[in-house]
Protein: FAD dependent oxidoreductase
Amino acid sequence: MNQRQTTSALPLPPSLWAATAEPPVPAPPLADSKAVDVAIVGAGFTGLSCALHLAQGGMSVCVIDANEPGWGASGRNGGQVIPGLKYDPDELLRRFGKEDGEAIVRMVGGAADNVFNLIERHRISCDATRNGWIQPTHSEKLIGVLHARARQWQARGAPVELLDRAQLAKRLGTHAYIGGWIDLRAGSVQPLSYARGLARAAIAHGVAIHGATRATKLEASESGWRIDTAHGPHIHARQVLLATNGYTDGLWPRLAQSLIAANSFIVATKPLPDEIGQHILPGRAVASDSRRLLLYFRRDAHGRFLMGGRGPFREPRDAADWAHLERAARLLYPQLKGVEYEYRWAGRVAITRDFLPHVHLPAPGLAIALGYNGRGVAMATTFGKHLAAHLAGVERGWPLPPASIEPIPLHALQRFYISAGVAWYALLDALS
Structure:
């Protein structure tokens, strides 16, 4: 292909966030070849956070994306800003040892702080709220697990509270759960507005962001790395970050086979009238429950109710693909019966085999980060910050040890064993 060929990007999929976001930033296709200190492939939370932090340190940065900033999961997720990983602090210490484990706990425990600090510092308009995250359970067997989790964070000074049935019902507005906890470090954002705000801040600090620019080849060169694009121009960079997460393709060998890109589905009602909405999440906390196939839910800035969870592995075809979420919402909140749903959408969540985020450093000057397993808003922002310090030479070592790229066995059959896993987890949830 040559430079005279036209560029194209997929349109932003319809969603609540696409309909209500701040205006997009200018991100024209790459018109001419260029040389920079760092090139970043992927304009989501990881890439944009890293670019902003690098530019603040004085480095020249170019970000390219096949579509537009926030087009992927960064602009389609539930907007819940949750610190921590799927593993509790004590488990992280068992896995990584006391010194490294505590460093990881500090990093992930401060992940929500990184998001809200960036929003405040750069005056990002994204409906940011910080009213906490509630993790409730319907299972007597899991109350002890959740309370132990909360106590581990309490022991490290985190502002968390254990919740009994009555306290939980008051905060959630439903009697469907029997206990849980709340983490007051957490909150919510309009995720597409947040992504666009990061992009706007990065551009203000000198970052070049180019949409409709698909990277087709990455290879080492004498001066570092060369990235070829589908429409002709190329980028020379001393260092490269790949930050494509659930939309990873074949740009780097075996990388796409190292994760499962599972669909997460979300529905949103029309703004609820006060007589219905005043008792649903009255404190505007966000929530995601303890099921293996968890449900996550919240209100938005205009009073809509959102419910999210797993759906078919394939791309959605019609409203029936979201019907299970609407049923779940009615079970939690019977007053939603008859309420009209205004938006339905989906996005790809990158799930790793060990349920940990992965940083790969497969060659000198090349870094890769992906696999946030449903904690992408806070963790991708945080990883972007640490990756910037690594690429700038400010931070040596990495709290979470770099991993080798290991393809998941029988990856080509992922849609079949995801379906089997979903059925198995649904059975376990029903029995727990």
